Amino acid sequence: MTKIPMQTPFGAVYFRKSNPPREDWERDYGVAAEDGLNVFRHWFMWSAIERRPGFYDWEEYDRQMDLAAENGIKTIIAELTHTVPDWAYRKFAHARQMRADGSELPAIMGVSAATGGFAPNGGGAGSLTMNCPEVKEAAGAFLTALATRYKGHPGLLGYDVWNECNYAPSVDYNPHTKAAFRVWLQEKYGDLDTLAKAWYRYSYAEWDDIEPPRQIAPYPECLDWLDFKRENYYGQMQFRIDTIRAVDSDCLIAAHGVAGAIPDMAARGSDDWLAASKVEVYGYTFVHARKGNQSWRSFYAADLNRAAARGKPFWHAERQGGPLWMQPQVVGRDRQDGRVAEPEDIRVWSLTSFAGGARGMLNLRYRPLLDGPLFGAFGSYGMDGSRTPRSDMASTIAKWTNAPEQKPLLAAKPVKGEIGILVAPEAQAWDYLLSREGNYETYREAMWGAYRGFFDNGIQADWVHIEDIDAYDALYFPYPIMLTSENAAKLAEWVKAGGMLVSEACPGYFGDRGKVGTVQPNNGLDAVFGVREDEVEFMPDIGDRIRFTLDGVSTTGGGFLQSYTVTKGRELARFDDGRIAIVENAFGKGRTLLVGTHPSVGYYRDQSEAGKRYFARCFAFSGKTRHTLCTNPALQIRLHESDSGRYLWVINATRRHQTATLSDGDGRALSSAEVFWGSDEASLRDGRLAVPPRDALIVRLA
Fold this sequence. Notes:
702 residues, alpha/beta, Rossmann fold, Immunoglobulin-like, 9-stranded mixed sheet, 32 strands, globular
């Protein structure tokens, strides 16, 4: 983090125009500094600053920057060009983003700011389209004025250029976006005849005959529409970066998503890999009140962002610090399921993120809003800005992460996972189109089920984009139903060179443009797996009835069923009806295991002991050694390494004191040489491990 002056950025989102009250600002900054907070992020909203065309009201924002400098706090300016001034919404009415039925996105109050100018369009895509040159010019002028005003300010750290990178699946059918889509298609296909063959639409006479698909279904035109939208919205992100950089070439550029690539990369554009590629520091919003207060979910979010960052630093950019009242995400859930945040929750959530590799943290509210539906939500500090037990806990962690003693610990990085979970964007896109009408959730359940299957076995499974497979020698592919011919060939070459691949049912069943292969597995993958398809059944609604027996253990499948005829492979298991279910094969220097259903879906739903044993069996197939062996699955273990040594993070997210025996992958007992975090009740000696409830033990290993 060469542009970041502090050891660990730790702070909160503070100013959102309507809140907090002005009379509290000076006191709040002083308290924050005393409590060890060193970063604030503020929403610099276009709708609140350019109050009339060309008239910018900076006064309250200037005060935030000056208070930051006076108190030794750095500022991340969250540019919110997606908050549209009311005058711009009127003036550029022709640029309002539209749904397929022609309805325009309204200008609404923002629930997270109790301020106008927002739109129901994901985390930050706005009501107006930047495909309209006038809107792009106006937004660019605001960004230029913003960057010019604060360039070189002593309170500035950098810019967050997209808040929660995503957009609504229903947009955008505005004429300006349609025109941009036609240009994009012309660049891709060159002429209408080529497009006609690709889309199976044979009567386009002019490019203006082309309309974006309103029927979102498994057709090539819909794949193109999804690809165009992603490129278009992320092109707007790049425009914001370039506009700021043209003024201030030295400032930090950051952004944050919602850890949403699984399962919303296709539908909502939550492409964490693409977003992270554009910035210097990436981050994520993860709120347990909304997502669920389970340890595997916390680690999933950190692991996904670590993968997407591809070695860059990343932050937990919005971590919950207080309760959430009366919102739809919490209805019917237990009080302890993130609805009422306690100090111990703040502790375990924060340390889990750092264990996953995050190296910065912001609470998504310093103190709660006093207005709107999110009154009282998320803040560590009280409604009046006073300290609370939650803020005291956050202060303890803030000061701990920035103490010089922690420098070697936080310089270390998580080791590579023992196995990777393969992410192929086209498989998710095709599933979105294929499953939308039936509201099937097979993709989500398969991906999360596989992650949890390894997680519950104490195995660190990394998320691996198909572009990054060469960095791994063992992969698990939970939902492989579509692969382009290019990616199928890439995967085959990877196995041939020595990779170990476990794939669930129907690998590459749909090929380029979603076309079903007449030979299955498709695109030459039949040779990789040493089989041909016998029969296939696409009945995910009753997929829980699928069972197979492996090593004498009956295990639940899910999703689809594909049975096989063996060509060169070796049969390992059969379905209950006698059809061949699992085949292993040698291909080149590598090996494959093909499983003709989705045990990951079954495990996501039932977390059965048989399902857990299945994932342990798949890892054993890899022939790899575990990082650590822990006898208590309630404890999560993460190993970090650097030149200064090996560091062990042990997280106990439960409400009970936990003990275990702990060894390395070869069975040698582990002991601590130096303790970085741990109460008197926490210890690791000669393999005997103890961790108090909702707490952690962090040590350098002997």
